[in-house]
Specification:
Number of strands: 0
Pfam families: Hemerythrin
Protein name: Hemerythrin-like domain-containing protein
Helix content: 55-70%
Order of helices and strands: HHHHHHHH
Oligomer: single chain
């Protein structure tokens, strides 16, 4: 989960850092990139509340065990919605791009979002205390199993690259997850990290990492 959340944070940072340096010709693609990041965060939290958290509740037998995380989601919901609203206005030509306005909106939810993304992995780790030899709780397997239920073809082609291509795995925790997470190898990994991003490839030039999980220079 820490890797996933790091990806969302890097996505946020890639938007925040590049927005002031854009040229007018970048705006259309950048707006789509921002919308993809928003959708990624939104779907991630929808998946948690709809599939993962209920699965954890069932496995532990503790009703409401993840209610604190759901409450945290609410702390940045309104700011994220304003972010989306502004981007959709831009995408429809109803507003003129202003990086000042974009960053102003992002500032309204940056702290609660960051606080949540950095604290939730510890909350999930705490679930291990309910795991026993007779009834083990494998959070990674649980997350992967429930995650499959929220993935659609539309998500794969219009959103997933912003997640996979902002995921740094080479340096994080001395590379212990490099080649391990996301759990893809061979042709499947190539398809997801290099093949799929050929759709809307002009959007993904704003990502912060290479397909093999290394940090790269930002596009602008």
């Amino acid at each position: 989960m820490a890797l996933s959340h790091n990806s969302l944070i890097r996505g946020f940072n890639s938007i925040y850092q590049q927005a002031p340096r854009l040229s007018p010709s970048d705006h259309k693609d950048f707006i789509c990139y921002c919308l993809a990041w928003h959708n990624c965060v939104e779907k991630h939290h929808d998946y948690e509340e709809t599939f993962l958290f209920p699965a954890i509740e069932k496995a532990t037998g503790v009703k409401g065990i993840m209610d604190g995380e759901v409450e945290q989601h609410a702390t940045f919901h309104d700011g994220m919605e304003e972010f989306k609203k502004y981007l959709l206005q831009l995408n429809r030509g109803k507003s003129k791009f202003s990086h000042q306005r974009l960053l102003q909106i992002m500032d309204t939810f940056s702290k609660p979002l960051h606080d949540h993304l950095t604290s939730e992995p510890q909350s999930l780790l705490a679930v291990r205390r309910y795991s026993t030899a007779e009834k083990p709780i494998d959070l990674v397997a649980m997350a992967l199993d429930t995650g499959k239920k929220s993935v659609t073809a539309g998500f794969v082609f219009s959103t997933l690259p912003v997640f996979l291509l902002n995921m740094e795995t080479v340096q994080f925790e001395d590379g212990m997850w490099h080649g391990v997470f996301p759990p893809m190898t061979g042709p499947a990994k190539w398809v997801m990290t290099k093949g799929v991003p050929r759709w809307h490839q002009s959007w993904w030039r704003f990502v912060s990492c290479t397909p093999d999980g290394r940090l790269k220079h930002l596009a602008v």
